[in-house]
From TrEMBL:
Organism: Cathartes aura
Any single Gene Ontology cellular-component annotation: plasma membrane
Pfam families from the UniProt entry: 7tm_1 (PF00001)
Membrane-crossing residue ranges in chain numbering: 16-37, 57-75, 87-106, 112-133, 172-196, 208-228
This protein's record includes keyword Membrane: yes
Top-rank taxon: Eukaryota
GO molecular function per UniProt: G protein-coupled receptor activity
Matching InterPro entries: GPCR_Rhodpsn, GPCR_Rhodpsn_7TM
Organismal lineage: Eukaryota, Metazoa, Chordata, Craniata, Vertebrata
Stated name of the protein: Glucose-dependent insulinotropic receptor
Domain G-protein coupled receptors family 1 profile: 1-225
Record localization: Cell membrane
Keywords: Cell membrane, G-protein coupled receptor, Membrane, Receptor, Transducer, Transmembrane, Transmembrane helix
Similarity remark: Belongs to the G-protein coupled receptor 1 family.
Membrane protein topology class: Multi-pass membrane protein
Amino acid sequence: AIALLRLIHKSGSKGLYFVLNLAVADAMVGFTVTGLVKDEFSQPFYPPQIFCVLRMAFVTSSSAASILSLILVACDRHLAIRKPFHYFQLVTGLRVGVRLVGLWLGVFHPTYMLTVFCVGFFPALFLFIYLYCDMLKIASVHVQHIQEVEHAGLAGGCPPPRTTGDMKAMRTVAILIGCFTLSWLPFFIASIVQTVCSKCFPYKVIENYLWLLGLCNSLLNPLLYSYWQKDVRLQLSQLAAGVKRRVL
């Protein structure tokens, strides 16, 4: 999150606020799950029911915010590739702020949160697939156009930096979508099967393994994004170098 704030300050890109929101949501998932794990390995603890309800609501709300932030990141990258010349006019600070405020107001509303988890997963997955396929189609047209220009001897053999950046961003989005699918799909399929046939699938498997697998997506998101995005990786290395200088 700190690296993204530095990058936003340097580049001025408002779309990076969606990625920053994803990092914050994933960090909140990590903090809340740490409390659950601590209870598993500590002495028997019997908190009041309201405490358990609030903590689980916080976990699920943070997870829902992470999923919705992934959708916003994918939509932002799709808009950047679909309308590259109008992107900075369309993605303003006000519009980004309204979307983020609406996201957080929504995930703390019980009905909306249940809709995201129970109904929204598969539409979100189909939306991811559609956005990525559309980005892939647009990128292939761009690449074909670049090859035609190079063949005519007009580009000097160097692709435009904007197109190169879009291709890298599209690759990052594809990796995030793939990890999201692998992490959450088993949980939702098993939950649907368990709802239809309670004896067909052990509830403990869903609770102890598949749900935790879905939460692991919040660990993968920042690791993958910081690894695949060169700008974020550079900011992290500069932060580490600054900390090292201060310590030594």
